[in-house]
Amino acid sequence: MLSDSGQKPPDELDLLAGSTVAGKYHIDRMIGRGGMGAVFQATNAAIGKRVALKFLAAETARDADAALRFQREAEAASMAESAHIVQIFDSGRSEQGLPFLVMELLTGEDLRARLGREGRLLPETAVRIAAQVAKALKSAHAAGIIHRDLKPDNVFLCRRDDEPAFVKLVDFGISKLQRQVGVDTLTHQGAVLGTAFYMSPEQAQAFPDIDGRTDLFSVGAMLYEMLTGAPPHSAPTYEAVLIAICTRDAEDVRVKAPEVPEKLARVIARALERDRQQRYQSADELLADLEAALRDSRALAVKTRTSGATWVKPPPRASSLDRYRALVLGLVAALGGFAVAAYLVTRGGEPSPNAVAASTAASLSADPPASLRPEATTSAMPPAASGTGTPQTPARPASKASLGKQPDKLKPAPRPPRPTASAGVAGGLGLSTREP
């Protein structure tokens, strides 16, 4: 419902900033908001410690399953004690009756944001992140907790003095507590819970005996995406993705990322085995192989730096608009050159190569699109053959005199500045955690 001014009136979550909850948590500001609720930065007035408060929206809180999952998150995260699992200190309800969790305040970004910015990661970086996820799962599984919704959105990369990307697993809202008495009330018969791209075949088929091996499949899927820029199974619909996961083996990671070491490719292939009996049987087993692969990746990185080669990411694809502009500009340049040649022929003279080149240069000088500028041309060049890591030098124009002196080597475009990291815990709410 809109107000007279045409704007949506504030709800209970909008009014929380500046208030005090449970008599001691002063809410400083909203960090992010999603369809299910919001996360706020707050201060424990008693000790001055900054924390994150995660609230369910009033409408969501009225849903029994959603409220139970919210409480499940607190229980699961508290039982699985690990440095790589977000800490939950307290829970309760606000004066307006909104359920909330008090969590540690994290500074950094989630893996989804990192991949959205960089596309894909170096093998050493990707393995280091996956190994930390495996450490978190080792503790969770030992406590009888299966996450069941591992995805880049739930892997938070914290900034710390000793580690630029210290992993914290968040959102245990649909986790399964194996050791609880009775039936898991969050798993109805035939219900499929989780995110399609990272779901194991047995989870996609809603098997009743899901165990920790489903999480290990998800680690393999995330590692695959970190290295290639895409999940191992893709399809246009949710249902088609699930069918692909259940019926097709993942393509070898080296098809899309040839620089991945063979040992690491084998680790990923085993983690993505459709038959869970052939998959890694424990997080500890996966962690051991990831740590061995990490040592190999570091050795390869040192060897690459010593040889002077560099790892080159594939260039981003030009947008359809840029390609259209480039095509139009090319046609205009060609027609301009043809017109000059035709004019000179009608005057009875042979067209000079310099005259045609000058005409073409003039047509190109009128504010060329980004896709044809020197820096864009360099960034759009395909990577060199594996092992060299050096981009090929573009061909020089035939007539340097008419087009002006060309540099010996085009300089690559400067990389855009990295966005400032933000603070927050937004797991499971689909929240943006950018600074206001």
Molecular structure report:
It is a single chain. The strands form 3 sheets. Strands 1-2-3-4-6-5 form a 6-stranded antiparallel sheet. A 4-stranded antiparallel sheet has the order 10-9-7-12. A two-stranded antiparallel sheet has the order 8-11. The C terminus is likely disordered. Strand 9 and strand 10 form a beta hairpin. It is α+β, with helices and mostly antiparallel strands. It is globular. Among the domains are: 85 residues, Phosphorylase Kinase, domain 1, CATH 3.30.200; 205 residues, Transferase(Phosphotransferase), domain 1 (Orthogonal Bundle), CATH 1.10.510. The two termini are 25 Å apart. Helix 4 runs antiparallel to helix 6 and helix 11 runs antiparallel to helix 12. The protein is built from 14 helices and 12 strands.
